[in-house]
Write a structure and sequence with these properties.
Largest sheet: none
CATH class: Mainly Alpha
CATH superfamily: Tetracycline Repressor, domain 2
Order of helices and strands: HHHHHHHHH
Distance between the termini: 64 Å
Helix content: over 70%
Shape: elongated
Strand content: under 5%
Number of helices: 9
């Protein structure tokens, strides 16, 4: 029996609410009842939109990836900011969105569960960011000195990505993450 079409606005609202619920409890501990309560919908109503918790989790991961892409590239594209501010903003949007908000264990569980079906889009998002950062470093002339030292722009961009990811896992607060990231960005952008 085909699914009955449901209003897109309500479905989107449920997914956005479910993001917070999954981040709070993790994919294993989150129940459809938890999401239904948070979305102010009956459990039966929730099942009209999502037949299974797995289907809902897939929609949550897709929403998180869309949001991640949007906020990251919006920060990277801010021509009104310095290169340092753009890089720091983009990496913060990409990596620090959950610092201070989500328990590290819960976030790790989310990543493991998401990689079971979304490894390719997650990896592509990371590769796209590294590529675009390398392009930005080249366009702004900051890659030239690194390339003269034998370090290609792509490697510098990957280093910044890795430093940002590491800072995320080592920082207990958003301010600490920002401090750590800015050091890496300053090292790369100061010639």
């Amino acid at each position: 029996m085909p699914d009955t079409p449901q209003p897109a606005g309500r479905r989107d609202g449920i997914v956005r609410t479910a993001v917070g619920v999954f981040l709070r409890f993790g994919p294993h501990k989150t129940s459809m009842d938890d999401v239904a309560r948070a979305a102010d919908i009956s459990r039966q109503g929730l099942y009209l939109h999502f037949k299974t918790k797995n289907a809902l989790f897939r929609a949550v991961v897709a929403q998180m990836l869309d949001d991640l892409r949007s906020t990251t590239w919006q920060a990277l594209g801010r021509g009104d900011l310095t290169l340092e501010e753009r890089l720091a903003g983009a990496f913060e949007a990409f990596h620090a969105v959950t610092v201070e908000i989500v328990d590290r264990g819960t976030y790790a569980e989310m990543l493991r569960a998401a990689q079971a079906f979304a490894a390719a889009p997650m990896s592509q998002l990371e590769q796209d960011l590294v590529t675009d950062v390398a392009t930005l470093l080249t366009q702004n002339g900051h890659a030239k000195a690194w390339e003269a030292a034998g370090v290609p722009a792509a490697d510098v961009a990957q280093h910044l990505f890795d430093a940002s990811a590491g800072a995320k896992y080592e920082s207990a607060t958003l301010d600490e993450y920002r401090r750590r990231l800015r050091v890496s960005v300053r090292v790369v952008t100061r010639q």
